[in-house]
Each structure stands twice: as C-alpha cells, then as structure tokens.
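Morning, I've got a small favour to ask if you have a moment. I owe you a coffee for this, so here goes:

…
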Amino acid sequence: MLQRFHRDERGVALITAMLVSMVVLSLSLVTVQLASHNSTQSAADRKRIQAIHAAEAGLDTYLARLPRTPTQSLQCAPAATAIPIEPGAEFQVTASFYPTFPGVAGQELACPLNPNAPPLGVLLTSRGTAVAQGSANAVTRTMQTEVRLNSVLGSFGYAIFSDTGLAVQNNLTVNGNAGNDGNLYTNGNFSCSNSTLDYGSVTAQGTATLSSSCHVLQDLAVGGNITMSNSARVGHDASTSSGSISMSNSSFIVNNARTASSCTGCSGRVGGTIIASSPSPAPLRFDFPTVDYDQVSWQAAGYAISNQSSCTTLRTTLATTGVTAKTVYRVAPGCALAFDTNTTVNLAADAAIITDGSFATANQTTFRSTVPGTARNLYIIVPRSSVTSCTGSQDITMANNTNFTDVRVFVYTPCTVTMNNNNLGLGGQIIGGTVNIANQFSFTFRPMLIPGAGAVTGFNPDIAYIREITNN
C-alpha cells in the first residue's frame, strides 16, 4: 500500500516546476512591459524637455540678434532652424511688432518695417519641436515673451554730442528719456560748473573738469585727467584711461574711481574702491555723425519740400502763417535766418529747417504746437556737406528765453551750437562741432530719427515676461 501511494505522487514536481515557471514568466512579462512603458515615458519626457529647450533657444537667438539688426531687417515670418540636440530638434519664431509698449492686439505693424518708424515693442512666439516636425513621435511646446525695444542709435544716441568740446557754465539740467539715459559725449574736453545736473553719463575723449555742484548722476569716463572740486559729484563710477584723478573740497565719487596714474585727494572722497595706476582702454569713440539733406528720404517720411532762397521771406512766412503741413524748408544758398524779439512760430505739423547758413533766435522767440498737449517735431539742421570751414556763418544760436512749447527739437551743425537760458519743452537732441551751454538751460533727451540719416542700427531688449503657452 505504501509503495502504491508513492507511485500516485509521481509528476507532482514537474507540475509544480511548470507552475513556478509560469509565475516567473508572468512576472518577467510584467517587468518587461513596465520597463518598456517607463522607457517610452522617459523618452517622451526627454523630448518634452528638449522641445521646451528648443523653444527657449528660439527666443534667445532672436533676442541676441536684436542689438545688431536695423529696423528694416527685422523678421516677422517664422523660419525653421535645426538645433544639434540628439535625436534632433528645431524652433520656429514669429514676431509681432507694435508702435507702443505694451503692444495692443490688432495694432501690429506690417513687415517689412518702416525704418523711419521703429517699433517700441515686440511679442515673440517660439515653437520648439523635438524630433523633426511631421514625425509621429514629434513633441512640440511653445514659449512666448513680450519685450520693450530700446533703439540703438550709435553716435545719434546722446542727448548732447559735441565734437571738439562741451562747456557747461551755469544751471544745466539734462533729464533722461527712459530712466537715467540723458548721456553727454564729446571728442574734446568736458567742463561744467555751478549747479549742473545730468541724469545720465558723461564720456569725454579729453579731460573733465567738474566744480561747484556739477553732478553727473551715472558714470564719468574720460581719456585724460579728471579734476573735481567744491561740491562736484559723480553718482557712480569715474574712470580715466590714461590720466589722473584729482579731488578736493567736498567733491565725491559714489562708487569706484579708476585711474591710469595717481588719485590725489581721493581718500575719504570715494565711496567705493580706489584703483590707481591701472591703465584701461580709451572710452568708446564716435566720430562726428553725418547729417546731410536727402530729399527722397524726407519725402518718403511724409514731408512736402519748400525750397527757399530768401531767409527774410522764410522768417516772415513762419512768423505770420506758421507751419500748416508737414514741411521741409530747404534754405539755399546760405543766408542768415534770424528771428526777431517776441516772435511766435505756430506748428500745426512737424517741420524741418535745413539751411546752408546760420540760424538764430532773439529774446522771447517761441515755437509752439497749435494743439496744446500734441507734440510736434522741429529739425534745425546745417548739412555737413555744406560746411567747408566754420567761420560763424553756419552756427546755430538760441538767445535768452527761446521757448519750445510742446515741441521736440533736433539741433545739428558741424560748427557751433550755443544755447542761452532756454526751455526746450519736450526736449530732443543737440549735436554740434562745439556746444556751449550758458545759464539756465533745461533739457530732456528725446531720440529723434532723421530721414536719410541716423537710422536705428539695432534694439536693446527689455524683457517683460517669458512664459509657456498652449500650442496653436
């Protein structure tokens, strides 16, 4: 009986082994399936990360090109760009430009953009795709950024530009356009005294002499010596590439002072670090900008051309009729355009006076917009090509109490600009071979484009936000 019992259990081990094998096989299949799922999910997650990186790369690439791209070369339409990310990725960037910042939907500018009307804002949308588009496994994500555009104007990017020297005698105030950017530049020497306040930086290829409450709110960068006395003040860094710094009385540099040689009297008058005997590269140099008369460009900007051969006739017309339509008054040959005391010139539209001779105002000369609160642009230009030598016959001189009400002013001559006790209202720009500022001059930097010259060479981006949006 016992022997028969053992015979009845034959094959149990085989059955048990088969059952265990089936369990192991089932677990193996589950493990393989789970591993395959995790691998697929990891690949999808990796492609999602690659796609967002590709989209961000699209934004970074476009933003990096802005500072060196002129207005007319800005691209609106999308273009695919391959990125060397394994197994491959690409982005497409679409740009919508606006005349204001922030931009308003429905007011997008048409491309190609008008070089005489640079945009102030742009909305960038970048679609990043991991693996080539059209692939069944492609993953796309979209990033968007809104950007304020600040025009890069090169030598035209200064509130005041003087080629041979810049002298400020008494009570000059220069305000910035966007923050503290009321910058001054000269290829000669800079000097200021007696309650001068500049909301920007000063660059001089020569020397700088600051005294008696001359206050530069940002940086002072010069090639030669810096001399500061009385209560002169630099609100950030002061540096000289090849000269020395001399400080006395209650003069003060808020941040750092760097000099190629000595820093005399700097101890206790420099809030940051004194770096002496440290030569540095000369300040970035700009040649005197060229402004000539380009009739076609002015007409393309919407100006009618009024050729004038008599300064007396033009003066009478402006004093009696004023500016009724957008007009360029082209004065040639050269003559002296001089306004009488208590003259008022009304501007119902923008205007440009482009003369081969001189321009001068008398006391109580007023240029004003006919619509209070509506800004007008006034260009006063002596073309560079018309000047062979400066003898005074091509100077621009503003007498005491010359007022510009709701008028932006662009002043240009390769010779001498003299401003006396003026109120430039909405401000503008002053560019001269030599610029002299005397007594009670208030001015706000407003960059002004000149048709045919001074085109925007690029844009500095100011990012408002970067965010991911849904794919369209």
About this structure: The two ends are 83 Å apart (CA to CA). The helical segments are 2-8, 12-65, 295-300, 311-320. The mean pLDDT is 87. The CA atoms of residues 343 and 365 lie 5 Å apart.
